Amino acid sequence: MSTWRNWSGLETASPREVSAPVDAAAVVAAVTRAAESGRQVKMVGTGHSFTAISAPEDVMLRPERLAGIVEVDRDAMTVTALAGTPLHVLNEQLARLGLSLHNMGDIAEQTLAGATSTGTHGTGGVKASLSAQLCGLELVTGTGEVLRASRTENPDVFAAARIGLGALGVLTSVTFEVEPLGVLEAHEQPLGWAEGLDRYDEFVADNHHVDMYWFPHTDAMQVKTNNRLDLDPAEAEPLSSLRAWLDDDFVANTLFGVVNRIGNLRPATVPRLNRFAGRLLSERRYSDIPHKVFTTPRTVVFKEMEYAVPRDQGLAALREARARIERSPWRISFPVEIRQTPADDITLGTSTGRESMYLAFHVNAQTDHRAYFAAMEEIMVAHGGRPHWGKVHTRTAEQLALSYPRYEEFLALRDRLDPHRVFDNAYLRRVLG
Ligand SMILES: Cc1cc2nc3c(=O)[nH]c(=O)nc-3n(C[C@H](O)[C@H](O)[C@H](O)COP(=O)(O)OP(=O)(O)OC[C@H]3O[C@@H](n4cnc5c(N)ncnc54)[C@H](O)[C@@H]3O)c2cc1C
Predict the structure, then answer these.
(1) Mutation test of ligand 1: which of 61, 106, 117, 428 has the most ligand atoms closer than 8 Å to its C-beta?
(2) What is the CATH topology of the domain spanning 69-180?
(3) Using alpha carbons only, what angle is made at residue 391 by residues 102 and 244, rounded to the nearest 5 degrees?
(4) Which of 186, 331, 341, 383 could form a disulfide with 267 if both were Cys (CB 3.0 to 4.6 A apart)?
(5) Which of 163, 178, 51 lies closest to 115, judged by CA?
(6) Tens of pLDDT along 117-149?
(7) How far is the CA of 432 from the centre of ligand 1 (A)?
């Protein structure tokens, strides 16, 4: 028996059998074998979900041999890649082809299927998530059928399987809409709480992508705006490697890691440490190809909960979150991250049908997150929030059914594509019933 463990170390599982399929036929064989013997199959990504959504309880399919670009269509501006391809590999290969994804989250370690199956998102732009940048996919259903889906082929499957939670089938390839490789200018600036909240709408209106952070127990905020420049990638002005190492590696990872360890040992020092971290923030501007601006490596291991609330509720929810933290005995050393996305039309997309603000709460991997996350979750739910499928939350099927207007449609499709629940695990039983 082998052991599976997710990135944060919060979830583990002991699959009885492990294999790494090379193609759709190998996936069909694995799924059919499992279905015939009444077993469950779970294709995992890189385990970057904080929930047990990818916990393989029986047969685990690993992603590493199902990787690589299979087709580039420059007329349609689409790229098809195998589902287990790591996002950073796709980004690098696209850059060499003079192409890029429109938007993405903070890291690029995840697999394409893993990231899209939970609705991984960044901030701003014209598409709500990586899933919303998909224009096609291929999946193996629980009955071993290979289905292709797009807006014109099996559109009902396409509507749901872009954020399929691993419940509808094993994705074997995904097709993204891409754009010519451009240049983004990043502008990071420290600012105070009052100014950050007062100017939030202005930042969002005036910039392509806005990412904001608030340092608990302080008034310090930081805003990062990213805007497309009309430049050739060769004209970009990236950070020097020394500055990139100092800011993104040493300060954001090494120093932050040390500060976190001190805060863990002596929680009373956290407010002072956060004020110190707030003072370390300085203004900087640089430009680079998109994936180098959007993503940075994260080496300090943490646990995270993130909710999408309707955009017009976001600032009120954030104010309540701050008030609740200030009334509490907790000492929170990680900043709260604030992002927003346009609406999408994906059946269980956290942004389905509504423009959203995302509020993300983190604690160090060693810190007990339960009281903090529970209190934040209560506030987010009161504001109509929907939990990120890959991040810690406690919502159940009955509760989630009320948050998603097309929830029943997803369940009906699941009954059709996976009638014998070959793809089931405890997390799916909790959120889908
Ligand atoms: C440090 C860090 C930073 C993060 N930053 C962001 C961020 O900026 N924005 C954001 O939205 N999220 C973020 N996340 C969350 C992360 O993007 C998601 O949890 C994502 O799902 C992880 O992808 P993965 O490859 O690790 O998949 P896993 O977590 O291993 O799996 C996720 C789901 O995908 C399913 N799956 C995997 N492969 C297949 C397949 N071939 N077919 C069908 N289903 C499949 C699994 O069964 C499971 O249901 C972050 C997580 C971490 C740890």
Answers:
(1) 117
(2) 3.30.465
(3) 50
(4) 331
(5) 163
(6) 999 999 999 999 999 999 999 999 999 999 999
(7) 18
Domain residue ranges of the chain, discontinuous segments joined by + = 69-180, 183-387
CA 19, 21, 23: angle at the middle one, nearest 5?
Answer: 175
Question: What is 183-387's CATH number?
Answer: 3.40.462.10
Report CA(113)–ligand 1 centroid distance (Å): 8
Instruction: Decide if pLDDT at 18 tops 70.
Output: yes
Ligand 1 atom 53: residue of nearest CA: 48
Per the rule left: phi > 0, alpha: psi between -120 and 50, beta: everything else, 57 is alpha
Q: What predicted TM-score, i.e. pTM, was given to this entire model?
A: 0.95
Q: Which residues pair with 380 in a beta bridge?
A: none
How far apart CA 426 and CA 118 sit, in angstroms, is: 16
Task: Give the tokens for residue 359.
Answer: 């509020």
Predicted confidence at residue 245, as pLDDT, reads 64
Q: What is the pLDDT of residues 355-411, one digit of tens each?
A: 999 999 999 998 999 999 999 999 999 999 999 999 999 999 999 999 999 999 999
